[in-house]
Amino acid sequence: MASLKLALVQLAAGAHKATNLAHARGKVLEAAKAGANMVVLPECFNSPYGTQYFEQYAEEIDAAKPSESIRALSEMARDGKVYLVGGSIPERASSTGSLYNTCTVWNPEGALVATHRKVHLFDIDFPGKIVFKESDVLKPGSKITEFTTPWGRFGVGICYDMRFPELATIAARKGCVGMIYPGAFNTTTGPMHWELLLRARAMDNQIFAAACSPARDMGASYHAWGHSTVVDPFARVVATTGEAEDIVYAELDLALIDEVRGSIPIYSQRRFDVYPDVAGNSKKM
Fold this sequence. Notes:
- This protein is an alpha/beta fold.
- It has helices spanning about 15-35, 55, 70-80, 165-175, 190-205, 255-265, 265-270, and strands at about 5-10, 40, 85, 90, 100-105, 110-115, 125, 130-135, 145-150, 150-155, 175-180, 210, 230, 235-240, 245-250.
- It has one domain (about 5-270): Nitrilase/N-carbamoyl-D-aminoacid amidohydrolase (4-Layer Sandwich), CATH 3.60.110.
- A hairpin with a 5-residue loop joins strand 13 (about 230) and strand 14.
- The longest helix has 17 residues, at about 15-35.
């Protein structure tokens, strides 16, 4: 199979949802026209990012009765004929009214193929810099998410999920070739750990890792780091950008996975007689 062309769409989002959706559509179709097979949007691409916004912008996720953002995402994937990792949107659960930070994944026919609710909520406190508590308004998700493409399976995490290696390790041991993270690190956490974590997730599991950020808006209440980045299975940064709006492209050569695992065979060297296998009965590679 030929390499996969991945596009990370680094967008700025304002207060008007319809404008955000139209802007995202234009960029997704631009990436598709440039030959992308898979396009990724940022965390909270349809709204400003902040605990004060989740309730106002929340939508139910039901492909049979699509809300504004769900309809728009399906049409972007279908019209662009791409796999679309639809960033994340604030979700309101129809059964309970609980709010989640949720990523949807769409195939080139515009069908919903995966839904990931952010498992690890972003609760941090840097005195004098930033305090943020998603748990004030959100519930955490409770499952690991993967989806299948002609190029292989991919795992999904959202932002803070990147800090927890177990999600990527389990996905890799179940056969995933990459992890995709829509994320919105900020100007405090971004320079410390954004690239480091991506390279660590790629290196630990010998897979691709990619994270798509919102563009930075210093006039907003939350200042995103930007720097959407793709890392290969050797933990090398193969594509990145700065803080402004941009589309980051990368060709993912899946043969690199076998190459690195042949050179550094950690998959056959694990010692589950010494420590537990976090993937349980998942496929061994």
